[in-house]
Amino acid sequence: MDKIPLLSVENLTVGFTVNGHVLHAAEAISFKIHAGESLGIVGESGCGKTALAMALLRLLPHPKGKIVGGHIFYQGEDIVPMPLERLYQIRGGEIGFIFQEPMTALNPVMTIHKQVIEAIKLHRKLNKSEALLAAIQLLEEVGIEDPETRLKAYPHELSGGLRQRVGIALALAGNPTLLIADEPTTSLDASHKAQILSLLKTLQKKRGLGLLFITHELGLMRTLCDRIAIMYAGQIVETGTTHNFFEHPKHPYTRALLAALPILTGPKKDRLSSIMGHVPGLGEWPKGCRFVDRCPHAQPPCHKPQSYIKTDTGPVLCCRVHEL
Ligand SMILES: Nc1ncnc2c1ncn2[C@@H]1O[C@H](COP(=O)(O)OP(=O)(O)OP(=O)(O)O)[C@@H](O)[C@H]1O
Ligand SMILES: [Mg+2]
User: Fold this and answer.
1) What CATH class has 1-83+215-263+271-324?
2) How far apart are the C-alpha atoms of 324 and 317, rounded to whole Å?
3) What is the per-residue pLDDT for 263?
């Protein structure tokens, strides 16, 4: 029998109340992450990636955002109905969260020392000197040189790259088994971005972490993730191994994302073809295939409701006209 996954999301729907109506930002989402495995969720801006990530730890803005239905099993325990006491152990403890903008996790008026020590003590029973040692080790582990000096700094005294390293240290403070990273490199320049990606990869392998990595840049997935889920307008349209995505993309949206990837070699004029149009807003989703208005293959049957089909590479939201 299969081992219990670290995280098993089943039929999860997340909504926001807008003008008295609950509009879905993520709908009927299902995926699994096993220990030591990395899953990338990729989709354009507004597809519902952050709504989904926040829902996983019940961090949705209250009272506007809510879990409308479904389950989030962490090692078999459902997070959705979980009492707050247990939720607080898991949040920041067994599951670490890395935010897009490191200042979201950092308190601007507290030294790094205070913040890292507090995070460690919240989840681990250590005395003062043990906690200080653990803080120094954590900062070293995330590649911060001269950690004793850095601990004395305030967040604004650090570069963006260093701040994100501290953000990662905070996410690791409770010795998590699973990390959720929501666009952790978006606010960084290209060289810091590459360094943070390589750090995450190293930490994941070394600690055997499960990793949920959220991004709108499909290209980042190639080296970081074992599997990829493509998200469009609140739905996962296709899931499969990273290799299959790049070699055998199936859904027209996945193909469009791949076609929009910058090609680093070859003539400049061929380097970028972006997807025409934009992701529909909440409550504006087409009734049938949600990609219909932007899809180069769209035909009348695409306006009818779609369902998932199993393919040799993983589940794909049915495309009625395009061979999957
Ligand atoms: N608090 C909120 N109230 C109402 N609507 C919201 C709220 N937060 C997000 N939304 C809407 O939910 C949809 C999904 O937003 P979300 O932030 O999850 O997208 P995303 O995929 O993370 O995008 P990005 O790549 O820009 O971070 C969008 O249409 C957004 O406008
Ligand atoms: Mg987001």
Assistant:
1) alpha beta
2) 9
3) 60
